[in-house]
Amino acid sequence: MDSPPITGTKSSSEKIGFLQKMAYGSGMMSYVVMVRGVNQFANPIFNDCMGVDPRLVSWVLGGSRLWDAVTDPMMGNITDNTRSRWGRRRPWIALGAMLSAITFAAIWLFPAGLSEMGYFLWFLCTSLVFFLAFTVFSVPYMALGMEMSPDYNERTAVVAYRTVISQVGAFLISGIYWFISLDRFDDMAHGMRYAGIIAAVLIFSAGIVPALFAREHQSVLDRQKKGKRVAKVSLVKSFMETIRELPFQILIGITVLMLIGLMLVGHLGYYVTVYHIFGGVKGESLGTLMAVGGISSQVCTMLFVPVLAKVSSQLGKRETLLVAMVLAIIGSGLKWVCFTPDNPWLSIIPGIVMSGGLAATWTLINAMIPDIVDLDELKTGERREGMYSAVYSWVFKLGVSLALVVSGYVLTWSGFNVDLGTDQSPQAIFYMRLFFTLIPVVSISLAFLLLLVYPLKESRVREIQAELKARVNAEEEEENKEKTND
Questions:
Q1: Dist. CA 56–CA 169, nearest whole Å
Q2: Residue 479, Cβ density class (10 Å: 0-12 exposed, 13-18 middle, ≥19 buried)
Q3: Do residues 282 and 186 lie in contact, with contact meaning Cβ atoms separated by under 8 Å?
Q4: Which of 198, 308, 349, 447 has its CA 20 to 30 A from that of 249?
């Protein structure tokens, strides 16, 4: 068995250069534009502009992500078993970037004059094709990040770079709110046609960079250069061995709880801003506030993530993740008082506080998964970065899909009716605000409690890495003896 060298301290071979991290991280710009672009603009465009029932919109969002989740393990197994001169991941990343760009733009290029069912079917069909392309890109991209270094803290650094650079994509998403609200467009749907094309160019341009310039750890490349091939593992066996690890199960539970809290009410931020703060009036002031609020949150993320990544090298990932969750809980609670028509600009504050905590949360969770891959290798002798990436992505997207389906009903349960326009009832406004604030506070708090029992602390990870290192050394000594005897 060929395994990457694993040590308790960071050697020069385990360090990743600045340009390598930047090249890898650039792919996350594409990832963010794709995911946030669909999630954040589906309701404003297809419900608020085109009149599609929010429950239908939520079924498209949830169903397409469920389809995305179903294809993830298959893609993980395919990329784990791929053999090429360019490695296992990068050919798929390049193909996925191209297909994702084309299909993302197609979502917003619907013909004018369709019926409600016509817009629904357009959104459904284009979303299903788009998220298939997204799977081709996202699964090998996430797996590549796990293979760039075996070092405990360097793994966190890779994900931290990825998270910080992703904010460039988030800047574009925030800017879209301003762009599509300009008076030069007939409505936001008209502006989104052009914004979708611009976003598609970024998706391909940023997504192709890791395929061209990012690299696996040298041990992975050496293995392929020597012509050594790893035996292919069946999809079912690989999947079952992946999900049996208790630390991985806990991370999955935390992820699902976080998603329930965030995705159930994520779209309500738009409705609370429009109908509570601005009384239903849409214009450049609304677009400017949402753009500035988004950009402020992204700047906060870019500042918070490197700090918390540094803190994690001192405290450990688990302890730092607990701090990040507390920030997210506080930020969500602030939404009740800060989303107010008396001072619209206060609505920026909760996003600033939450974004730092949430960005660090996803950064550290993703940095923990390679540690579990080490534990799995110690038990099974197999390294399954692709399958772990796919299964986690599968659970992530399954949680997203279910939350998105319910989210349309949450909006309906609040009493919101798009046909009433600016005449929404005070009760509907109250319940939108209540759901928007309370659901994330409760779910993130439950995730916090679950993290308290996570067993794979830094000391244990170091022990696992030392055992793997000893195993590799023993195998090399055995190989040398056999060569000497021959």
A1: 27
A2: exposed
A3: no
A4: 308
Superfamily of domain 21-214+233-480: MFS general substrate transporter like domains (1.20.1250.20)
Q: Are 309 and 156 in contact (CB under 8 A)?
A: yes
Query: Could you tell me the CA-to-CA distances from 462 to 16, 374, 484 in Å, in that order?
Result: 19, 10, 33
Question: If you average pLDDT over residues 59-79, what whole number do you get?
Answer: 83
pLDDT band at 68 (very low <50, low <70, confident <90, very high): confident
- The letter for the amino acid at 52 is V
The total of other beta-carbon atoms located within 10 Å of residue 84's CB is 11
Other C-beta atoms closer than 10 Å to the C-beta of 282 total: 17
Query: pLDDT-based confidence at 291, cuts 50/70/90?
Result: confident
- The number of CA neighbours under 13 Å toward the Cβ of 169 is 27
Decide which of 210 and 171 is more confident. Answer: 210
Which among 5-14, 181-190, 281-290 has the top mean pLDDT? 181-190
> What's residue 375's pLDDT?
86
Give the per-residue pLDDT at 217: 61
Extract the tokens encoding 47.
């419900």
Band (pLDDT 50/70/90 cuts) for residue 317 is confident
Closest CA to 192 of 183, 181, 203, 201: 181
Whole-number CA gyration radius for the chain: 23
Backbone angles phi, psi at 244, to 5 degrees: -80, -15
pLDDT tens readout for residues 354-380: 887 787 777 788 888 888 888 888 887
Domain residue ranges in the chain: 21-214+233-480
